[in-house]
Amino acid sequence: MSYEPPSPPQELPADVVDTLNDYSPELLRHVARYTEELAEYHEREARLAENEENNQIEERSEDRPDGVPSKATITVKEINDNRYYYWQWRDGEKIRSKYKGPVDPEN
């Protein structure tokens, strides 16, 4: 064990380092346990969100209309209590959509 204080990671903001430097060893151990649990929670939430995105309706079709890129996916939008399919993709900072058809073809 070194007698020198540890060097904080460069990614850690200075105000956080300053705050932690004022804490007692006991409080630092509580913070360490909490931050480890918090990191696991955030990772789990990110995995769940990723799985949810993968489970959404996604169609990779060769019969895309003109102007719809291959990276476009199918989304469902509800308008006036009716559900419709739309092609949707990102174009720079914008989200583009193009109408595909009703979810229930009888409507």
Automatic annotation (TrEMBL):
Residues 57-66 have a biased composition (Basic and acidic residues). Residues 46-72 are annotated as: Disordered. Pfam families: DUF6788. It comes from the Archaea. Residues 54-106 form the DUF6788 domain. This is DUF6788 domain-containing protein.
